Amino acid sequence: MKKRNYYLTTISLIFLVIFLYFAHNYMDAYIVRILNLCAIYTILGLSMNLINGFTGLFSLGHAGFMAIGAYVTAILTLSVNSKIQNFFLEPIAAPLANVEWPFFPALLLAGVLSAIAGFLIGAPALRLKGDYLAIATLGFAEIIRVIFTNTQNITNGALGLKGIPAYTNLWWSFGIAAFTVLFMALLINSSYGRALKAIREDEIAAESMGINLFKHKVMSFTIGAFFAGIGGGLMANLLGTIDPAMFKFTLTFNILLIIVLGGMGSITGTVISAFIVTISQEALRFLDQPMDLGLFVIPGISGMRMVVFSVLLMIVVLFYRHGLMGTNEFSWDKFLNAISLKKPLSKGGKYNGNA
Amino acid sequence: MINMTWEMFLQHLANGISLGSLYALIAIGYTMVYGILRLINFAHGDIFMMATYFAFFGVFFGLPWYIAFPITIILTILLGMGVEIAAYRSLRDAPKISIMISAIGASFLIENLAIVIFGGRPKAFPTEELFTKVVYIGNISVQRLTFIIPIVTIILLVMLLYLINKTKTGMAMRAVSKDHETAKLMGVNIDRTISTTFGIGSALAAIGGIMWGLKFPQIQPLMGVMPGLKCFIAAVIGGIGNITGAVIGGFFLGVSEIMLVAIFQGLTGYRDAFAFIILILVLLFKPTGIMGEKISEKV
Q: What angle, 0 to 180 degrees and rounded to 10, lies between the N-to-C axes of helices B243-263 and B225-238?
């Protein structure tokens, strides 16, 4: 059984790599871009799910961490020339003017700085109960945005940064997404992961079993912030332009929708719903644009798409609280059982089902 | 560095107090709901925003203000109670995180519906000569509104304290906030009491919204977000769950925000970040706020 599952995993990974190779070389830029976004949202969703789903904290600061990550990689990877073009109102601060880093170290530094910010905001807020964390992290994301809008000589203020080199491709985004999935799976199944889940189920019980609440919460929060920073960095180098207005609460809301829809506390669920949400974001774009039905034209109403998504979030929370996967994970055994026509025999060899 | 005459100082102080009163009115709604449900009603800021639109359309369709404003208050109360029934009631026994997600969903839904229905472009709130007339005291010129707002706030606060401490409804609210189960056993109708709480909070948000519109006559669908967050912070500063505390917190936040910008003009761009820095300081050094009492957690 073990061996079969191992082969199946290897085969599907090979298929994924072949698909990515095909997509990278032959598919049109729009589809590649959406696939990239799917992978980036997977990373972001997993990082938020670690904090909100597995540890049971309620953090709303993801847009802030992403902003840090995005700006760090953008500033570090922008070429010296485009820096001069970007910063025409006020020249960029001297130490940054001549830096031009390769992508990977820039991405890593983005994650680290974002993790440090996560630690600094988490340490005071995590000593208190959940709701304060929600509002403090929300506030933190706003502060980051306000700071980035005002530091003209570092972030170019409200004008944003343009011409960020498009380093992010399918290999980077899917590679890092796969690494994130692996990392989260290992973390969740380690003793740390069990401690996090214990905190989620009952803080007081966990504490009386000797789990250091503060340490584990801060750890979960910092790791979450690290991956959010990486996700932000990938996004900056995918989109090519960033400005502070991108990192409003809507962005956090999208990630929250992903983890709620997928199931708070399921890695598989997050991956599936990251793809669903990202693709439907694009597919539902028509709602915001005028529609020509031949006989008459329905004028496009901007904002309609977000109405659909907020209704979706409400429906999931109110009626299907466990989302797609609940806290379950994918496994080959379950999957094969589900798709096989032959129903497994129940205890005592009784045949059930009529296939 | 500090270059301010006495008159200017008084002018800023008056502005700060009237902004603080508006914060206080909205903060009361947060603190009451938090006291009774232990929940940040994220939609409260958006209920406030809807109130300004109700008032805008009331006056827009030609109603005189003394009819339009009461209708606004009633509609806002209905909206607040509707949000409670739709988004919170069925989740009463759900895990806390689900309720908070539902609150965020409700808030987002109201904002985006407002964008779809009213359009994203700002609208000019009708100004009412009676309230906005500028009066001069010595060298200070202030709108009448600057005096009206704090007075209205104080009157409402006194009425609310009377309602909570002296009436049966108030007693039911206090009972529910202490312990849902016991209150139910004592014959308190929990759902109705929670509805009433949302209704009162929304009414105050509506009054705050109308006066906000008169003072800052430009309204748009996302105008509730920032004041909403700041007012929650005001409630935390005052001690969450405590109504007098919320009012003190509101005044404190309003005055210090205006004064900060007036004294250090270079910091104008950072004005919105200021409240959050205060929040983090309060959480670090006095998490129970000015008037709050420590709540120990039950096992």
A: 120
Q: Is residue B119 part of a domain?
A: yes
Percent of chain B with pLDDT strictly greater than 70: 97
Q: Which amino acid is at A282?
A: E
The answer to whether the CB atoms of A317 and B284 lie below 8 A apart is: no
Q: What is the dihedral of CA B179, B180, B184, B186, to 10 degrees?
A: 10
Please report, for the domain that includes residue B103, its CATH number: 1.10.3470
Contact A60 B40 (CB under 8 A): no
Q: Which residues of B touch A138 (CB under 8 A)?
A: 229
Q: From chain B, pick out residues whose CB is under 8 angstroms from the CB of A262.
A: none
Chain B interface, mutation test: which of A49, A50, A129, A131, most B Cβ atoms within 10 Å?
A: A131
Task: Grade residue B66 by pLDDT with cuts at 50, 70 and 90.
Answer: confident
Q: State how many domains chain B has.
A: 1
H and E: helices and strands count for chain A: 16, 2
Separation of alpha carbons B237 and B289, rounded Å: 5
